[in-house]
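Shift notes (night). Ran Short-chain dehydrogenase reductase ATA1 while the centrifuge was going.
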Amino acid sequence: MDSDGVKAQRISSKRLIGKVAVITGGARGIGAATAKLFAENGAHVIIADILDELGAKLADFIGGRYVHCDVSKEYDVEQAIQCALNWKGRIDIMFNNAGIAGLGGSIMNHKMDEMRALVDINLYGIVHGIKHAARAMIKGKIGGAIICSSSSAAIMGGLASHAYTLSKEAILGLARSTACELGVHGIRVNCISPHGVPSEMLMSGYRKFLGNADLKPEDVGKIVGGKREPY
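Came back to this:
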């Protein structure tokens, strides 16, 4: 095959050419690895995070956009999606990835304000993402894919803090429920539940419970962008 043929084959193999993706918590870890993978496959990526310096640097590196976004604030998430609409006129992929690990310890000593703060980010942040991504996708009449980050802690007890486990278990139910509602509009809602991924945020906590980690952030990024049905 000549060089032009090889180049054409390489371009055609990029599954996400022209697609627009918003990734919350996209400045580092799983989010950053996914942002790079999506961009490599031709997607236009908006990184939404509170880590402004890291997020802006990564967005510049992959040719994307960065927007400051605290997912616990519905307005911030709505504006992140609006950024995609203003930039490319559409949103095809919403990766609800932002989250925090929370504090450990006995349930008998939990401070409820700290638990609520974690749930605001880990759970309600995803509610905000699904809500506003679905609105934009339905209005655009092109369908789409919404991916939510849960955790193996939602399936197996004793792997993480009680607050973190609570939030990640709730995400599983939310994904199932919204998938049933939104499927008729051509919108797929899926959930990933990584186990032992050495992201910067979770490394110390996972080492305590699991010992050596099983996966790298790049491995989970490949799961998010894995070849199943076309986006």
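Residues 18-223 form a domain with the Rossmann fold fold (CATH 3.40.50.720). The beta strands are 20-24, 44-49, 65-68, 93-96, 144-149, 187-192.
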